[in-house]
Design goal:
single chain, Creatine Amidinohydrolase, Chain A, domain 1, Creatine Amidinohydrolase, six-stranded mixed sheet, 28 strands, globular, Peptidase_M24_C, metal ion binding, Pept_M24, metal-binding
């Protein structure tokens, strides 16, 4: 039935393209803000193809179509998308632009929605098509919307005020910092298109996108410290109006494009990673001068102030108690059998829901049993759900959006009875050693995340194995769980952010892993706060990490003989801290279980 639906939808789109005189169309997973997570109204690729991942693109021609995903989704795309309708293409081995250059008919007209693509992508695709005498043209409105009869409307939920007690800085203070930057760079204004940047700058939040507490809006920030907020009129409450004050003018979201035309003659900063091609087109068409520049809120947003840092600590402690209740429950129910990935994820959500400060999950829980644990970005649904078998590895990567902080934690556990294999213990212990190496790292000011990446991989490399994802990503403060610009990852052109200097106040994940395809997977993840380190006799300024996440790590998967004395000391100190921080929040059987889980190695 699902595949029949895909075929009917693809056929309807092709008819609509014919009606418009288009020979093809490009369908990304994207919204008008280039968000990682998007609202249901923007899930055009999923509607067309059935693919439910968070990164991918389809290209539809009249006689063929292809779907492009990276290595994270090799298995998932084949489970969800009909290979008779869409050829499976792997990124970065190829790309939609390259494929179009090879497959578009001579002289073809290929459409794209300029509100869903970057200017750089559009230029690269146009160049690829030129070789075939074909051209890329922006569409006036998205043709998928014309054939998607029951397409959801964008959320009309009200925007919410994020109080200074949680933000640690007023919106006026943040806008003044942006204004100083604009004046220093010689710009008149900046377009703030990323939803989490809008939320941070104006101290507002929302419920328009699952897992990320943002409101659909744009901001034009001016060099005099004023700003214009473009937001749905149904989202504006008296509380929001009072909060924003006279220096922020509230305008209808539908008026954003026209307002860009009003910037004629002005120099306007636009971040090409979040400002879509349509924004550049509108500014250029009006006679403004758009300048590609990093969003001026990104770096100050990444450096958490003391209020945000303490909020994270508080949220992590409550989240750690929920995780501990869950791990105890797994230790009891797992060996009995009868659990599956969905029921386990639901139970974890119930433990988190007991906290009144929880607003949402920070991403869809990765509840992965057996071979599914070998898929780093696996997402369980009714079709993929499998039992959590006794005598196997289970991996759970999850997080919560709390009013005072965003959490992200992975624990890999052995579900008894029986013992893990020597190989499983060896691989898990090597992952643990890499995790400890990052947690204990001390490094000079000026170090970039990419320089630390090998600290985590060295023990796996020594055994001839590795993992294909980054070691750490930035995390927001009651905002996106994946926040730039900082990142701990191999320094390659495909890993933006790995060349960002790490600064005191930045929060990152620490999550090395190992994945044996078709068998099992391991990941150990805590969040860490970059902080200054005082070293006697140090020649220069040095940094290190404060661990923020506290929950026991499964000792059943650890081979103590592989740990050094320093690593054992880290383990024992960490678990003493887990017990100290979480004990006041737990009682009864859970507390007794925690005491046992935290005993020294």
């Amino acid at each position: 039935m699902l595949m029949q639906t895909q075929e009917a939808r693809l056929s309807a789109l092709r008819e609509e393209l014919k009606r418009r005189g288009l020979d093809g169309f490009v369908v990304p997973i994207s919204d008008e803000h280039m968000s990682e997570y998007i609202g249901a109204y923007a899930q055009r690729l999923q509607w067309l193809t059935g693919f439910g991942g968070s990164a991918g693109t389809a290209v539809v021609l009249q006689d063929k179509a292809a779907i492009f995903t990276d290595g994270r989704y090799t298995v998932q795309v084949r489970e969800q998308v009909d290979g008779k309708l869409f050829a499976y293409e792997s990124v970065p081995a190829t790309s939609p632009a390259k494929w179009l250059g090879e497959n578009a008919p001579e002289g073809a007209t290929i459409g794209y929605d300029a509100w869903l693509h970057s200017k750089g992508w559009a230029e690269a695709a146009a160049r690829a098509l030129e070789k075939k005498g074909a051209r890329l043209v922006p569409v006036g409105d998205n043709p998928i919307d014309a054939v998607w009869a029951d397409r959801p409307q964008p959320s009309g939920a009200p925007a919410l005020v994020h109080q200074d007690a949680h933000s640690g800085r007023s919106s006026a203070d943040k806008r003044a910092e942006v204004a100083d930057w604009l004046k220093a760079e010689g710009h008149d204004a900046a377009v703030i298109a990323a939803l989490d940047s809008v939320a941070w700058l104006l101290n507002l939040r929302g419920t328009d996108v699952d897992r990320t507490p943002v409101a659909l809006a744009y901001v034009i920030a001016h060099a005099d410290g004023t700003a214009e907020l473009f937001i749905g009129e149904d989202k504006v409450t008296p509380e929001l109006t009072q909060h924003l004050g006279n220096a922020v003018t509230i305008r209808p979201r539908a008026g954003f494009e026209a307002a860009l035309a009003g910037l004629a003659g002005k120099t306007v900063a636009v971040d090409p990673n979040f400002g879509v091609a349509a924004i550049f087109h509108a500014l250029e068409g009006a006679g403004a001068k758009p300048v590609a520049a990093r969003d001026p809120t990104i770096l100050p947003r990444a450096v958490k102030n003391p209020v945000e840092q303490q909020g994270h600590r508080d949220a992590q402690a409550r989240d750690g108690a929920a995780i501990t209740r869950y791990l105890h429950w797994l230790s009891v129910e797992g060996p009995r059998g009868g659990l599956d990935e969905l029921s386990a994820a639901a139970r974890l959500r119930a433990f988190r829901d007991a906290d009144p400060a929880l607003r949402d999950l920070s991403f869809d829980t990765i509840s992965a049993a057996g071979p599914h644990a070998a898929l780093p970005h696996y997402r369980v649904d009714e079709d993929s759900n499998i039992p959590i078998a006794p005598g196997s590895i289970y991996l759970c990567d999850s997080g919560g959006q709390y009013i005072d902080g965003t959490t992200d934690i992975t624990r890999t556990v052995w579900i008894g009875p029986g013992e893990p294999s020597p190989e499983q213990k060896d691989r898990n212990t090597r992952v643990l050693k890499g995790h400890i190496a990052i947690a204990r790292a001390v490094f000079p000011q000026g170090t970039v995340g990419g320089q630390l990446d090998a600290f985590a991989r060295q023990f796996l490399w020594a055994a001839g194995v590795d993992y294909a994802h980054g070691t750490g990503h930035g995390v927001g403060s009651f905002l996106s769980v994946h926040e730039g610009p900082q990142r701990i990852a191999k320094i390659t052109g495909a890993q933006p952010g790995s060349d960002q200097e790490l600064l005191a106040g930045m929060i990152l994940s620490n999550e090395p892993g190992y994945y044996k395809e078709g068998a099992y997977g391991i990941r150990i993840e805590n969040l860490v706060l970059t902080e200054k380190r005082e070293i006697a006799g140090a020649e220069g300024d040095y940094l290190g990490f404060e661990t923020l996440t506290f929950a026991p790590i499964d000792r059943a998967l650890v081979e103590p003989a592989l740990l050094t004395a320093e690593e054992r000391e880290w383990w024992n100190t960490y678990h003493a801290d887990v017990l100290r921080i979480l004990s006041p929040r737990l009682e009864g059987e859970v507390l007794e279980w925690l005491k046992d889980a935290c005993r020294p190695l």
